[in-house]
Amino acid sequence: MAKQLFGCEVPIDLDRKRNLKFKFRSYAQYQAKTGHSINKFFFDIAEASKNHGDSKVPLTLVESSKMSDLIGVDRIRDLLHVALIHEDPCLTAERTEEIMDQAAGDTFDEKLDYIVEKISKAYLASKGIDPDKETNSGESASRTEVKSNSTGS
């Protein structure tokens, strides 16, 4: 039996090992907090990349320095926050900022690169796209399913 990728968790190392997941609640809470959809966040990243000479940049490879300038660290924080609350319902935006400081990387840009790469993978999974499969041209693979380990028919 196959299962859709929607709701799959993507591991991320912050203050501890955590798991990112976008569910309907995540989408609703992000929109309520920011006034924009999660989809718009990723559309804005793609547009910012195009407008700065990167015509074909996969979501997971956008430079964080461009993103922090053009998209805003607050939007990245808000997105990370709603992707983590499924496992930590008491997590606040302020605490999310603190754990962002503990992400992998030695510099601000390296930390943002790491966080955005993981957020992007969780977003792609929520759209039914396997974030770990890429075509030879570097574009994201099309929608796919992942086999579950359940037995039975």
Written description of the protein model:
By secondary structure, the protein is mainly alpha-helical. The protein is built from six helices and four strands. It has helices spanning 24-34, 38-51, 64-70, 73-84, 93-100, 108-126, and strands at 2-3, 10-13, 17-20, 146-147. The strands form two sheets. It has a two-stranded antiparallel ribbon. Strand 2 and strand 3 form a beta hairpin. The N and C termini lie close together (7 Å). Residues 55-62 and 134-153 have low confidence and may be disordered.
Q: Total strand count, please?
A: 4
Structural category: mainly alpha
Strand portion, in percent? 5-15%
Helix content: 40-55%
Spatial arrangement of strands, main beta sheet: 1-4
Whole-number radius of gyration?
Answer: 15 Å
The parts where pLDDT drops under 50 for at least 5 residues are 55-62, 134-153
Count of alpha/pi helices: 6
Largest sheet: 2 strands, antiparallel
Mean pLDDT: 76
SSE string: EEEHHHHHHE
Shape field = globular
Distance between the termini: 7 Å
Note the topology.
Elements lengths: L1 E2 L6 E4 L3 E4 L3 H11 L3 H14 L12 H7 L2 H12 L8 H8 L7 H19 L19 E2 L6
Helix pairs in contact: 1-4, 4-5, 4-6
Question: What is shown here, in short?
Answer:
The protein is built from six helices and four strands. It has 153 residues and is mostly helical.
Task: Provide the descriptors you would attach to this structure in a database record.
6 helices; 153 residues; two-stranded antiparallel sheet; disordered C terminus; 8% strand; 4 strands; mainly alpha; two-stranded antiparallel ribbon
